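Reopening this ticket.

The earlier resolution said the output was attached, but the attachment link was broken on my side. Pasting everything inline this time so it's all in one place.
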Amino acid sequence: MKKILILIFIEIFIFSFSQKKMDNVAFKNSAEVFTIPGLSQSTSIDCGNSKMIFLSGQVPLDKTGNLVGNDVENQTRQVFKNIESILKEHGATGRDIVKLGIFITDISKTSDFRKIRDLYINLQNPPVSSLVEVSRLFRDDVLIEVEATAVIKNK
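Inline output:
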């Protein structure tokens, strides 16, 4: 009986998220953030009473693709400006972030990251997060990349 229930749950899960009908999913690129061809900056999913917004990893590039900052603090500031720009287009802000994924090339600079991050998130209910030190990001001069997930109420 337990195996049957598990199989039924798996089938419902797969059917619910199959790409045959994805009317509740929207892919978007922001005019305010540098966009790489073949990559969506964000995806939103209409969950009924709320909307869940997933952001691609944001790096410290301005909207023309120029690197902003040569240290973690200044690069983090640009990353969160990019995140805020994308969220704004969905009707959200950094205070709506529920999950962060942080990739940093020097874990000893975590306090520099947190100092800027704390200006953008809800400190009373901070998002869950993962912080991973990486040996390199897509360019040698990029020191940090941040993924974000936000949830807002539907209007």
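Reporter confirms the inline version is readable. The longest helix spans residues 72-89. The chain has a mean pLDDT of 86.
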